[in-house]
């Protein structure tokens, strides 16, 4: 004869469940604790590492980039503020602020001839010229420094896609269309309405309107002696970029 | 034409088209004025004839098949005149003196030369000043006679020389 489930059985089951739960949360807590410990350890190591390789980080652009990536993977941003361990320890915050100021200076100093667009090559060449041989900067540094400047408003932007990289400091934001044409120009040096329209699959009207805007903001120059008229960009004209 | 170094703009094709954007055009005219003056200085060009201007190498770059159109040349020359670097010889504006130094600056140079070579209170002919052996190393050696005259007139106005007329020849007494 089968015994019916009694009150005792239900209570037993309940106690069992509670025990399971207890054990479960205990394990979870353990894991969390261990994870926290691990993270803490990793952080410590990273800080040790940073302190040890402070000079290397400051001087070697390749090293700096990898260090930045490592920091990002654990959610540490050495650039987040001017205070705190990272900055005091490394001075990296200042490093990027200073670099940012130098980039702004370069943009201002050259904007009369390039209209506010600078190719990454020119930025690196001009800035590295002024730096010691063992203290050079990379494109990655420039991109980070310009991103830092965003807190000051949307005055400056790095456009980077594939091999074409340039910085623009034009008042008012550029639309996707403008950026796309600048990328085309960076590759080709100069553009005509028809050839650009066919290579991008745009209408002539769309290309024309976008180029007109680039003329208005002073980034592009028109050459009427070319047939058909072509649009040129001092920023992407080699001899202009090397001129002092 | 020996060692004149063309600025980058000279090889930039749209430089030879007046730009529609007024800000850019201003930058462009600045560059044109600087180019014409430095070219004039390097080639010792003191006068520009408007009708012949389009054949001057400064206004055309055959390497990139670009030439500044006549109306644009007129704009550049007018801009130079506005800045005091060009003076029309007549009202019809067909010819102008190109001053890559102003007559006052030339006068200053000539007077400094006269001082350093103890010519104060002596008389020199115009030929001695712009052609003589003793000025061979001076910047004003070979200076256009009309421009030289303007320079000396400027000096006379400030009381530093006295211009003398010897009939077929002219001279100055440095004071």
From TrEMBL, chain A:
Component of the endosomal sorting complex required for transport II (ESCRT-II), which is required for multivesicular body (MVB) formation and sorting of endosomal cargo proteins into MVBs. Residues 25-59 form a coiled coil. One of its GO terms (biological process) is protein transport to vacuole involved in ubiquitin-dependent protein catabolic process via the multivesicular body sorting pathway. It comes from the Eukaryota. This is Vacuolar-sorting protein SNF8. Component of the endosomal sorting complex required for transport II (ESCRT-II). PANTHER family: EAP30 SUBUNIT OF ELL COMPLEX (PTHR12806), VACUOLAR-SORTING PROTEIN SNF8 (PTHR12806:SF0). It comes from Penaeus vannamei. Keywords: Coiled coil, Protein transport, Transport. Pfam families: EAP30. Belongs to the SNF8 family. One of its GO terms (cellular component) is ESCRT II complex.
TrEMBL record, chain B:
It comes from the Eukaryota. One of its GO terms (molecular function) is structural molecule activity. InterPro entries: ESCRT-II_cplx_Vps25-sub, ESCRT-II_cplx_Vps25-sub_N, WH-like_DNA-bd_sf, WH_DNA-bd_sf. It is found in: Cytoplasm. GO terms for cellular component: ESCRT II complex. Keywords: Cytoplasm, Protein transport, Transport. Pfam families: ESCRT-II. Its main location: cytoplasm. GO terms for biological process: macroautophagy; protein transport to vacuole involved in ubiquitin-dependent protein catabolic process via the multivesicular body sorting pathway. Belongs to the VPS25 family. This is Vacuolar protein-sorting-associated protein 25.
